Amino acid sequence: MVAAPMQDAALLDGGFADPVFDAQAAFVRIMNAFARPGTIAELGGLARPPRPVSPAAGAALATLADYDTPVWLDAAARQAGMADWLAFHTGAGVVDVPDAARFALCCDPAALPALGQFAQGIDAYPDRSTTILLTVDALDGGLPLRLAGPGIEAETRVEVAGLPADFAAQWHENARRFPRGVDLLLVCEDRAMALPRTTRVMEG
Amino acid sequence: MSALPTYNFAYLDEQTKRMIRRAILKAIAIPGYQVPFASREMPMPYGWGTGGVQVTAAIIGPHDILKVIDQGADDTTNAVSIRAFFEKTAKVAVTTRTREATIIQTRHRMPETPLAEAQTIVFQVPIPEPLRYLEPRETETRVMHALEEYGLMHVKLYEDIARHGHIATTYAYPVKVEGRYVMDPSPIPKFDNPKMHRSPALQLFGAGREKRIYALPPYTDVVSLDFEDHPFAVQHFEQPCALCSAKGVYLDEVVTDDRGGRIFVCSDTDHCEERRAAGFTGPQDGSGKADSPNGPAASEGDAS
Predict the structure, then answer these.
(1) Which CATH class is domain B14-129+138-223?
(2) Cβ atoms within 10 Å of A169's Cβ, excluding its own
(3) What domains are there in chain A, each with its CATH number?
(4) pLDDT higher for B283 or B93?
(5) How far apart are CA B119 and CA B136, in angstroms?
(6) Which of B28, B59, B146 has the CB atom closest to A28's CB atom?
(7) If you write DSSP's letter for every residue of B161-190 in order, what string do you get?
(8) Which H or E element spans position B269?
(9) How confident is the model at residue A9 (pLDDT cuts 50, 70, 90)?
(10) Catalytic option among B206, B208, B241, B282
(11) Which value does ipTM take for this structure?
(12) What is residue B222's predicted lDDT score, i.e. its pLDDT?
């Protein structure tokens, strides 16, 4: 594949200003988000990916993606020029097949492929699965959800707006595949919230 | 401007940190499952905590406060050298006090002071595979974990009972995590196993030579394997710590002379020092005072 010429000089911009410490700061927040599902990681002010990709998703990919991690992008992220931004700032290549991706970036939740289409890992190596960065409308003021599972003392309440319509059923299916399954990082502008595969999501 | 090139922050290069960080996230997402990672050679031999050091290097930031313990002690060779390593390569603040630390790297103990939500504990692990001495082939143990086939481990514990009358495993006592994966808690005494259960702190495990990372998120169920008629029980000590009179803590036996003299003292040196600073004394603390626990007021005259 011939690399497309960089259309916009802005793509050269927006990576970490201080790669070592910005990546460390972002990682610890993301790690704590995965260790404590339902808590919000503040990832603003670190990366400026092309819109409509959220700064939180940009920071997560700048922290975790590199030439070892194929990334799947949805149509909205591709149109924004995210492939060029990723190539320049992380060295990560873009794949067309969700099943081949270590990370997936979805800017349009309505167009999210079924979670089962992404890499699930295998029973002996369930870690070889896709981590999906899913853009949602809001991480407060939306559909009330109760979360339970490892990392949560008893139960925690969150509100998420803009999840795909059939999310509850898909997440239930994902849990049934345990220990295989995908992990989610819900992103919205500067903030992120993790849903590892072990988290049980209940409405109400 | 610095004249000489220096190490990258916390020694590891950024690509290595990213690789370890990705492994840590998957380890947290699958509690108790061993994630393979591309362990690097470190400037210390395997067996000196290279797995724990790599995990710590991948998570530590300039504002962290690091505590390193080896068998509970802050002042043994392994703890001193790893602490010095991070002071040199990451220029982080270090402490011996459990409460002050944000990251605690440990070899073979959990501190007596309960951990808090804001803390992360990193275990150094020599053999991450709990089934390894029962089945030497990695290909087989992978399948056993995949199929949740843990009968062999119960047979091993049963053979302990048949031979010794009780489960004779005293350290690296296998645990089941969230009802799914059997996990090696690292060679901590089984005394510490209950501290892992639903701990508010994030627990990370690094095995450098064996190239594995695994994790326990906070509030994760960690149950020591046992039988209904032989329930799991921790060690009990007949006497309190000889220096601080602490009871219900893990004690080390220290030989004091060549005529069979011995005392039992806290394995957790920070816990013992804090108690003595608060005025608790034991029969061997050198003050020649009473051998029963004294309140803080009773020992104000102690000079040491």
Answers:
(1) alpha beta
(2) 10
(3) 15-197 (3.40.50.11310)
(4) B93
(5) 35
(6) B59
(7) HHHHSS----BS--EEETTTEEE---S-BG
(8) helix B269-277
(9) low
(10) B241
(11) 0.95
(12) 98
